[in-house]
Specification:
This protein is an alpha+beta fold and 142 residues long. It is built from seven helices and six strands. The radius of gyration is 15 Å and the shape is globular.
Length: 142
Amino acid sequence: MEEFDRDAVEWLLVGGYAVAFHGRPRATNDIDLVLEGSPVNLARAATALARFGAPANVVAAAAVMKESDVVFLGQPPLRIDLLRTIDGVDSKALFADAVVTELDGLRLRVISFDHLVANKRAAGRPQDLLDAEFLEKLRARR
């Protein structure tokens, strides 16, 4: 993520780590990042991944990602999943409504609470539905 910031890559944290950020820490096997899909941004991401030491096939795949592609870097539980889109949320809205924060000097953009709930509902897997239910209860208590 530091390398992405160094190259001004537009990226956003989603998935289990975003659920933890918004109030429900839980185990997860990967870090899910959405990349803004413009050719310029994908080229920047590929450059950053190469500098980080990603395998050549990962760098090449990231440079030409289509909307439905997922590029995997590493192995669980330390895997990074690079995505272009997620279920239930328009990509432009996803980036426009992101929560921006800082952690140990690193700028993080995290999916908004409402978009995270919508994404988890749309994904529909058992863990996603549990996450959505917990987050909705958390929202009701606020």
